[in-house]
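Inputs:
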Amino acid sequence: MSFYDEYSSYTEADIDAVLCNTTSDQIIKIIGKERLTRMDFLALLSPAAEEHLEIMAQKAHKLTVQNFGRVILLFTPMYLSDYCSNKCIYCGFNVTNTFTRKKLRLEEVEKEAQNIAASGLKHILILTGEAPKIAGVSYLKDCVQILKKYFTSIAIEVYAMETHEYESLVDAGVESMTMFQETYNAPIYDKLHLAGPKKDYQYRLEAPERACQAGMRSVNIGALLGLNDWRKDGFFTGLHANYLQNKYSDMEISISLPRIRPTMGKCETGIAVNDKCLVQFMVSLRLFMPRVGITLSTRENAKFRNHAIQLGVTKMSAGVNTAVGGHIESQENSGQFEISDDRTVAQMCEDILKLGYQPVFKDWQAI
Amino acid sequence: MMNDQLIIGEKSLHSRLFIGTGKYSTDTLIPEIVKKSGAEVITVALRRIEFNSPTGNVMDHIPSGMQLLPNTSGARNAQEAIRIARLAKAAGCGNWIKIEVISDNKYLLPDGYETIKATEVLAGEGFVVLPYISPDLMVAKKLVEVGAAAIMPLGAPIGSNRGLKTKELLKILIEEISLPVIVDAGIGKPSDACEAMEMGAAACLLNTAIASANQPELMAEAFGMAVAAGRKAYLAGIGRSHQYASASSPLTGFLND
């Protein structure tokens, strides 16, 4: 049984019924509980919970400080290649977008690594589009050999792979894998991913589990909020994380909460996810899974991110450039998406300290 | 009382409170925490130490003279714990090691079997090994056999601040195990630490209860006092407590009539 079976066991009607029928009294009882069921979590995502957001936030804050302390782990992404064979209508790397594609040569990877490492960061996330013949496992392994000299933790956010491919990357020194399902709603997923290997919903859905089986230390999942009703995608994201944590208990599971940002494709999905919605999702996740990592990227602006530190976030990107080679040359654009927080690592640290938290650069030692 | 020392790995300790370095809003708090708590042993996760960092690292804030207790946080099996311990020693963190093998990220409960394996190897290599375990008598006995320097059973899951939930099992360990039994994890309040010491625990190790307090320095001081008070009470010998009044004998007094 994979998470696909669990996902398939829920009907839209079941979920709608909870979202529509949950009462304010039920929310109060759920907030007071020590352990939440899946249905409790869904109820917290309902409109009825909105009036209890402050008390939920206070509990989320307390649980986060207790489990993680007053610390925020910082990392940055490094875009290695924007070649991509997929046709995802919301993404800047979409195969039909016309721009000069780029893949970093190994000497450029080294220069980028040096520039990023100079900021003090020790955790790096490497990204590519889906083009295995151009930037596949062997290229990634070559990059990892270079990056190991500068970083103590290397994570990948690339296309969905086979277990043996993940194993080979773990052997090379990769310890973490990020994979966004984008939306958990299979029919909507099908409409948004027009062509390319990524069109296979189930293959992507099961990729994080393959990474767990391959011996990664941590897996980070998420939905791109705004592609579907955030309450439903939020629910399945939490369920997916819970499934992985229960089945692979030694894994560090974390969840990203990316909201869709403008890209070259300028896709308008028309489904709003305002700040209040994002906070509701974040604090509900913390109440449901007190030990899950929560990552917030530079898709969010500095003000929102500063507030979110107190609400359950444990990990943030800093000093971000979403363009290939963005740390070694100035780019006009061609990034994967536009960022909203362009603070340097030093500025981020300063702000985090002001909030009474400690910015942490290193939370893993390669062994 | 002056001579009441805890001896671990040939080191004599006056304070029976061991503290941690994690979860603080800034590492600059550590010297004051050490001072107020009176602790002489401090644990630090190797995974967090930024060796060769130009901006310094957590080690810079640990006062000299403290007994370092590096821990293997992040290890999922014996092999990883052993590798982390060796890295810590090579990095100059000394030969004490707290074995923490956790393959359960939901409750953070330790893996007894893997802990025994790691302890055996590292004790054989000359490490002073302090293994963190669930309060399981058979695991503790095995650890004594394979060369542990002390046993560190949990009072409640790490970071839970729930107090001595495993009290009955801790009592058995204290009674049956010849090594120092150090209650590690779960202690939430100074009164929990005091109770553990009154029961005969050799020491307490705690971090979250201090780090998550509104005023960590004040809480550190409170824990230092509580541990010392509990120890004194244990040494003094606590009088028997009675569940029922015994001043008069309303049910059996007639026998003396």
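Residues 12-256 of chain B form a domain with the TIM Barrel fold (CATH 3.20.20.70). Flag for discussion at group meeting.
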